[in-house]
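Q: For a teaching handout, I want to show students what a protein-ligand complex looks like in token form. Below are the inputs, and the small molecule is NAP. Please produce the holo structure.
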Amino acid sequence: MRQMQLTKPGGLNNLKLVDVEPPRVKADEILIKVVASSLNYHDLMVALGQIPTEDRRVLLGDASGEVVETGSDVSRWQVGDKVMSACFPRWIEGRPTKALMSFIGDHEDGYATEYIALPETAVTRMPGNWSLVEAATLPCACLTAWRALVDEGDLKAGESVLVQGSGGVSVFALQLAKSMGAHVVATSSSDEKLERLRDLGADELINYRSTPEWGREVLARTGKAGVDHVIEVGGGGTFSQSVTAASFGGHIALIGVLSGPSASDIVLPRIFMKQVRTSGIAMANHQSQNAMVDYLEKSDLRPVISDTFDLADLAKAFQHQKDNKHFGKISITMS
Ligand SMILES: NC(=O)c1ccc[n+]([C@@H]2O[C@H](COP(=O)([O-])OP(=O)(O)OC[C@H]3O[C@@H](n4cnc5c(N)ncnc54)[C@H](OP(=O)(O)O)[C@@H]3O)[C@@H](O)[C@H]2O)c1
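A: Here is the structure, written as tokens, with NAP included.
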């Protein structure tokens, strides 16, 4: 079978497509024929070697596929079942612990492969009315947006949500927020992408390059009220603007650090004077993923996939992501 491995120290030239024997299942494992994956920013960082990993690591944390074999002790799945990955294969429910934070495609081998054998508990069901390619966009990006808005944010219809940029997490957050009746302010570095965000339902559009003080602009566009929820993916370069943009008692879901891991312009008293609640988020557990799947099955929401690459072209797909040419998700197909 084909498998894409990353040789140390990483970098797109060190992605190697190899032929290996398909794995054998142990008693508690299922063999999955992987049909599709999708790229997340974390995968790009690992591929570039900016997050160091083991030599010959098999990349990619998202996937969907079909169960083609079950071990003798497996009771949860049958041959033919369609499943999707969970970024933290062992975080089934409850609060996070350090031991559960093992990230597939980084701390352990991932889904850039045609077949994978995993414990039956490592995957969840996928929306029954979605294609396998669609489902492979969900486990990291959509689940993170879900946790930010639903589990931590308790989003209510009529509330307002700010999404930053047009990557996987933000586009899913926009779609989920609109499907729940929220008012959405969207930012992007590109006017063309802003128009595409409008087509997805964004109510207010702000170019964060031409309006660097976009926090004030959010206040102006919301009658000085600010937004109830911020999907904070920018990090060091955006957090201070997010505090400005947030409403009194609002919620900032701290998810990413696209513009840097720290900032000197954060004035801490502004956070408590505005009584802004900040949640640190690293994806979510399987219980939350299952709740998201239940919701998606009943909604009209579908992922936005701007580009599709074959596994053999994974380096080209990462370059496309690095060049910021995508909108929403980039799909990877295995065969
Ligand atoms: N904590 C978690 O659980 C979790 C889970 C998933 C992702 N993340 C993190 O969230 C971030 C986004 O991940 P992703 O997979 O959605 O990335 P992605 O699909 O690669 O999207 C990146 C997009 O972010 C936007 N962007 C870049 N710099 C920005 C800035 N300074 N301000 C606002 N937007 C900016 C760009 O949109 P425009 O081209 O429209 O400007 C770009 O297309 C990453 O930092 C990632 O590591 C964290």
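A: Two things your students might notice: The chain has a mean pLDDT of 98. The chain has ten helices and 16 strands.
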